[in-house]
Amino acid sequence: MNAKPLISHASLTLAAMLLVAAQGAWAQSNLPENIRVPDGHKMAMTTVGVGEITYECKEKASTPGEMEWFFVGPKAQLNDTTGKQVGSYFGPPATWQALDGSRVTGTQLAVAPAGAGNLPYQLVKANPAEGKGAMNGVSYIQRVALKGGAAPASACTAANKGQRQVVPYQADYIFWASR
């Protein structure tokens, strides 16, 4: 028996099973209703963002004298499902850029709680892509499968006003295009 074709067939079967499992993990029915992508869209690309969120201790604009951690911006590497870098995520403004140079920005439509210590789930309506490449045709971006990234648990007081803290996080970013 030739082991090479058996291994190749087994590898392809495993890869197909993992792809089906991954799509099930991102099934819209498993997500909060307000961050679901509207009908008429298909998954164009999935990535795992691994990086950090920067926060700064500032005075609340609406309540002088009261302090809180304000979101400054993200910095993450976007990887494919094998761990290979395919792009980056940074801001402000929130920008998803593929290694081919194409990129999108967008407008947040909705968020939903994703558990203590985690950034919220997010649905973003993408602006038209800049440059030609992987981001062309992207109409929505979802942030799901979150780990970390919430504002620091440490106190934000007048004594540490202006201090910045970096918080690690990981999230899956799903890019959607019209069918």
Written description of the protein model:
- With 179 residues, the chain is mostly beta strands.
- The chain has 2 domains: 1-30; 31-178, no CATH class.
- It is built from 1 helix and 8 strands.
- The chain has one helix spanning 3-25, and strands at residues 41-59, 67-79, 85-90, 95-98, 103-112, 121-126, 138-148, 164-178.
- Strands 1-2-3-4-5-6-7-8 form an 8-stranded antiparallel barrel.
- The chain is globular and about 50 Å long.
- Residues 1-24 have low confidence and may be disordered.
Question: Main traits of this protein?
Answer:
1 helix, mainly beta, eight-stranded antiparallel barrel, 2 domains, 179 residues, 8 strands
What is the topological layout?
Elements: H1 3-25, E1 41-59, E2 67-79, E3 85-90, E4 95-98, E5 103-112, E6 121-126, E7 138-148, E8 164-178
Antiparallel strand pairs: 1-2, 1-8, 2-3, 3-4, 4-5, 5-6, 6-7, 7-8
Gist?
The protein contains one helix and eight strands; from the N terminus they run αββββββββ. By secondary structure, it is mainly β.
- The radius of gyration over CA amounts to 19 Å
SS content category: mainly beta
Mean pLDDT: 89
Number-wise, the strands total 8
The termini sit apart by: 44 Å
Q: What assembly state would you assign to the polypeptide chains in this entry? A: single chain
pLDDT < 50 runs, ≥5 residues: 1-24
Structural shape: globular
- Give the strand line-up of the largest sheet: 1-2-3-4-5-6-7-8
Proportion in β-strands: over 45%
Question: What's the helical proportion of residues?
Answer: 10-25%
Output the number of helix runs: 1
Structural domain tally: 2
Order of helices and strands: HEEEEEEEE
Biggest pleated-sheet summary: 8 strands, antiparallel, barrel
